[in-house]
Design brief:
The structure holds 2 protein chains of 2 kinds. By secondary structure, chain A is an alpha+beta fold. Chain A folds into 2 domains: about 1-215, 2-Layer Sandwich (Cytochrome Bc1 Complex, Chain A, domain 1), CATH 3.30.830; about 240-425, Metalloenzyme, LuxS/M16 peptidase-like (Cytochrome Bc1 Complex, Chain A, domain 1, 2-Layer Sandwich). In chain A, about 40% of the residues lie in helices and about 20% in strands. In chain A, the strands form 2 sheets. Chain A has a 6-stranded mixed sheet. In chain A, strands 9-10-8-11-7-12 form a 6-stranded mixed sheet, sandwiched between helices. In chain A, a hairpin with a 5-residue loop joins β1 and β2. In chain A, α10 (about 265-275) packs across α13 and α10 (about 265-275) packs across α16 (about 395-405). The radius of gyration of chain A is 23 Å and the shape is globular. By secondary structure, chain B is an alpha+beta fold. Chain B has 2 domains: about 20-225, 2-Layer Sandwich (Cytochrome Bc1 Complex, Chain A, domain 1); about 245-450, Cytochrome Bc1 Complex, Chain A, domain 1 (2-Layer Sandwich), CATH 3.30.830.10. Chain B has 17 helices and 11 strands. Chain B has helices spanning about 60-70, 80-90, 115-125, 130-150, 155-165, 180, 185-195, 215-220, 280-300, 305-315, 345-365, 365-385, 390-400, 405-410, 410-415, 420-430, 445-450; strands at about 20-25, 30-35, 40-50, 90-95, 100-110, 205-210, 245-255, 260-265, 315-325, 330-340, 435-445. In chain B, the strands form 2 sheets. Chain B has a 6-stranded mixed sheet with strand order 1-2-6-3-5-4, sandwiched between helices. Chain B has a 5-stranded mixed sheet with strand order 7-11-8-10-9, with helices on both faces. In chain B, β1 (about 20-25) and β2 form a beta hairpin. Chain B is globular, with a radius of gyration of 23 Å. Classes of the chains: A alpha+beta, B alpha+beta. Chains A and B meet through α3, α5, α11, β9 and β10 of A and α2, β5, α4, α10 and α12 of B.
């Protein structure tokens, strides 16, 4: 039924290749006089040099803090006064950015982006300010249970791979980040050939092509990135980071599946059944609906480039967190043992295909979808073909892929003052935070 | 849809933001449609004019608990099935509660709209609760409170700040409720509250997306239109006595690594009558629009006064900003926030913050400053029209907080009309220390040092 929905949009994807070889996907949507653009390049925090952890995070935070003839305040005023929204971000795999501009300010918006990429100033004031902001953030995150649960999971699973290093850096690496590292950042990471770009809004392919050449055309064709190889996570462990909290926050996870693996869509459906589907998932049913153990419990596939992952999270009172983790393990084991029905498959299929068009209703959403399609090499016809991949998955596929993927050992990290957790490695804190055996805050 | 929005913000002719259609059903339920034909998708919302500020005494947050229990079944839709049915039809759904309203929504393919309207109308009057579903859900709320508030010292401070700002008016309550009162909720509490407040004449239907009023109205009459109106209590809340003394609080917590500072002032909402004339609407709304401009001038972005002075020029803070929203049924707050850089004493930061405020009062915001902000806010309104959810949400919030459709539609015009004199008048009226609460979030040094020793 709902497969039809996306076709109106799907058939409108235009593939652009500019004179300087830059590629982009565009959907021309003339209803409102603005455009949204997303771009990314596969050179994220995993490529930060040893000792310069957080370089991607700090440099991207500084790209809109002064460029060309504009100092930091002048650059920000240009953005604000013209209602231009420009932002940059860095995760483990990629450097990304987004630009939102009205038609009336479009030329200026792309010029500001060009300046940010080609002539960032890294003046002393914004460098000192952003350094201080990141240091304060790192310190604050020391007691953020969600952040720490995830950090511990990655640090332990990837002890000898750059995925285990902190994407936002350490106190020492941020304090020591040199101006040379920052200055070299764009030139050493951004290449025309690797850029993926998605645009949605009131612009033609010819207009966009000209702007893209002008904005990105002076980037090098390629860059030589440091070698980062595939990683195998260390699994099967339980870690506790003690913090005086009334509720423990848990990250759990195992190996996921490559984006281009033929079994990807079966795994994607399995994740929906396990913990991806809001109130429809088994984890939600067992942990929240039946027992009231948690407000939030979910799982998600991460198609991270060097080690695909299947991660999840749950937050439960300290006294009951062991029960919640046992339920998570039980539901994963049930799926691995093939306890999946045709009804499960059909429900996952109608949701995942029917809800796909809901993710394509605004320029921001469409631009993000398009850049993802290009970055993951899914093809310009993906919006039209994607639901077919989901519909093709059989019950036998689901059982086979569950046995393949969900039989690997799980690693669990717990932050809080959990009770009754056996065979866990308790990590020691280096700071003066009181330990979990002292009175906790609420009831 | 016309593209009447003027990018310079100087055009004083009527600017129509969303161009909705509206009507009222015979049973008193208001209906608003915002047509957006981009995709064959609709966003369907049912808003109730009741929120945590309408909690019964001793049952803070009960409206939020009721919101959770609205998913626990009727005679037609078994417990827990509502969201699963929506999902099986490729839709997404959720609900939320604030101090003034409760809202439920589904985003779904256009051809499934009749189904979700039928289910939403059904649970407006036919909720059938069993203890076995009510009490585990109460435990869920306990965990939700721990996740949102108790696990986060910043949220605890914010909660205390509201309680200190409002001695008497129910805006003092946390939306989710106090823990000991959450733990006291009973099924009878829920049923009583539901019977009082859930009725078509206390609800608003808002649909945005691939539909217009001619298409929606027959569906609305066949579902919600069949429900009978009921007597609904007036939202008469306790009246806050005048605040005559500045209030201060410090929350010390061993989990705090970076201190922060919040200053909250009592401030009129769009619905607050003019204090001199006692008259609401019209001119009194201009007071709130002036405060929106003031919030931007002081703390809206990297070139605002607070950010520029405290963060950039003087290097005292890692961040600084303001928070003000005029859409509230009763008098609300204007908040100023800042966090010191690691080596800066919080006293130094508070003094500097007070200097920025004092200077703004003394010299006033400038005409150029106001014009810049007006141009930006009006231009950004174009972006808001792109999202189905934003359109529905903006009308829902307005209509449950004493506002009307016209308030939303004329917002760009009204913002463009504000003069620097009006902004400065409101700044002088509102930024008075005796009508403020200052909250500090601080590390519990004594405990930290003891543990380290």
């Amino acid at each position: 039924m709902t497969t039809m929905i996306s076709e109106r949009t799907a058939n409108k994807v235009q593939e652009i290749r500019t004179r300087s070889g830059i590629r982009a996907y565009l959907i021309n949507e003339p209803t409102l006089p603005f455009i949204s653009m997303s771009f990314r390049t596969p050179a994220g925090a995993a490529f930060d040099p040893v000792g310069a952890e957080g370089l991607s995070y700090m440099a991207t935070a500084l790209l809109d803090e002064g460029a060309g003839s504009y100092d930091s305040q002048a650059f920000q005023a240009e953005l604000e006064d013209n209602a231009i929204r420009l932002s940059f971000d860095a995760d483990r795999d990629a450097i990304s950015g987004s630009l939102l501009t009205l038609n009336a300010t479009r030329e200026h918006a792309f010029e500001l982006l060009r300046l940010a990429l080609h002539e960032p100033r890294f003046d002393s004031e914004p460098v000192a300010r952003v350094r201080s902001q990141i240091l304060a953030e790192l310190d604050r995150l020391e007691t953020s249970p969600n952040f720490q649960a995830s950090r511990v999971w990655f640090e332990q699973a990837f002890a000898s791979h750059s995925y285990g290093r902190p994407t936002r850096g350490t106190i020492a690496s941020i304090k020591g980040m040199s101006k040379d590292s920052l200055n070299g950042f764009v030139r050493s990471r951004l290449a025309r050939r690797d850029l993926a770009i998605g645009v949605s809004g009131d612009i033609t392919a010819a207009e966009l092509s000209t702007l893209l050449d002008r904005t990105f055309g002076d980037l090098p064709e390629t860059v030589a990135l440091p070698a980062v190889g595939p990683a195998t996570p260390i699994l099967g462990q339980t870690y506790i980071l003690p913090l005086p909290l009334p509720q423990s926050v848990v990250t759990f996870g195992t190996t996921g599946i490559e984006r281009h693996d033929p079994d990807y869509y079966a795994a994607y459906m399995l994740n929906y059944i396990l913990g991806g589907g809001g109130f429809s998932s088994r984890l939600m049913e067992e942990v929240r609906e039946k027992r009231g153990l948690a407000y939030s419990v979910y799982s998600q596939l991460y198609d991270t480039r060097f080690a695909p992952l299947w991660l999840g999270s749950v937050a439960t009172s300290n006294a009951q967190v062991a029960q919640s983790i046992a339920l998570v393990r039980q539901e994963i084991e049930k799926l691995a043992a093939g306890e999946i029905s045709e009804i499960d498959r059909a429900n996952a299929c109608t949701y995942l295909t029917g809800s796909f068009p809901l993710r394509l209703t605004s320029n921001d959403q469409v631009a993000r979808m398009l850049v993802g399609m290009m970055a993951h090499d899914l093809g310009a016809d993906y919006l039209a073909t994607r639901n077919g991949f989901i519909e093709a998955v059989t019950l036998e596929d689901l059982k086979r892929v569950a046995a393949r993927c969900l039989t690997q050992p799980l690693s669990v990290s717990i932050v809080g003052a959990p009770e009754g957790i056996e065979a866990a490695v308790t990590l020691r804190r280096k700071d003066g935070i009181r330990q979990a055996d002292e009175p906790v805050l609420a009831d | 849809m016309t593209l009447a929005l003027n990018e310079t913000g100087t055009d004083k002719s009527a600017v129509h933001l969303f161009e909705p259609e509206s009507c009222t059903l015979a049973n008193g339920m208001e209906v608003v449609v915002i047509t957006n034909r981009r995709a064959p998708v609709v966003s369907h919302w049912c808003w109730y004019k009741v929120g945590t500020a309408d909690s019964p005494a001793g049952k803070s947050g009960l409206p939020h608990f009721v919101e959770h229990l609205m998913f626990k079944g009727t005679r037609k839709v078994p417990p827990g099935e509502f969201s699963k049915i929506v999902a099986r039809h490729g839709g997404e759904d959720n609900a939320f509660t604030s101090l003034d309203f409760t809202a439920y929504f589904q985003t779904i393919a256009r051809d499934r709209l009749p189904m979700v309207m039928e289910m939403e109308a059904d649970r407006m009057v036919n909720l059938a609760l069993l203890d076995e579903h009510v009490y585990p859900e109460r435990d869920v709320i306990v965990e939700e409170r721990r996740s949102r508030v108790d696990n986060d010292p910043g949220s605890l401070l914010s909660e205390h700040l509201s309680a200190a700002q409002f001695l008497h008016h129910p805006y003092r309550l946390p939306v989710i409720g106090w823990m000991h009162e959450i733990q006291s909720y009973t099924r009878a509490d829920v049923e009583d509250f539901y019977a009082h407040w859930y009725a078509p004449n206390n609800a608003i239907l808002i649909v945005s997306g691939d539909i217009d009023m001619a298409e929606l109205l027959p569906l609305a009459e066949a579902t919600y239109g069949k429900l009978s109106p009921r007597d609904v209590p007036a939202r008469k809340r306790l009246v806050e006595p005048p605040q005559l003394a500045a209030r201060r609080l410090e929350l010390k917590d061993s989990r705090v690594r970076q201190p922060s500072l919040i200053r909250s002032y009592l401030a009129p909402s769009l619905n607050t009558p003019d204090p001199v004339t006692g008259i609401g609407g019209g001119a009194s709304k201009a007071r709130s629009y002036a405060l929106e401009i003031l919030a931007e001038a002081l703390g809206g972005g990297a070139t605002s006064r607070l950010y520029q002075s405290l963060v950039v020029e003087r290097g005292l803070a890692t961040g600084a900003g303001t928070y003000y929203r005029g859409t509230a049924l009763d008098e609300t707050t204007f908040r100023v926030v800042a966090a010191p850089r690691p080596e800066i004493p919080i006293d130094t930061l508070e003094d500097a913050l007070d200097e920025v405020l004092a200077q703004t009062l003394e010299m006033g915001v400038t005409a150029g400053e106001v014009a810049r902000i007006q141009k930006r806010l009006v231009a950004e309104a174009t972006f808001a029209r792109d999202s189905l959810g934003t359109a529905a949400r903006v009308f829902g919030v307005a209509l449950t907080t004493g506002g009307c459709i016209e308030d939303v539609e004329t917002w760009p015009d009204e913002i463009a009309k504000v003069t620097p004199e009006e902004v400065n008048l409101m700044a002088r009226e509102m930024l008075r220390i005796e009508r403020s609460v200052t909250g500090r979030l601080l590390p519990d040094v004594a405990i930290s040092e003891r543990a380290a020793a």
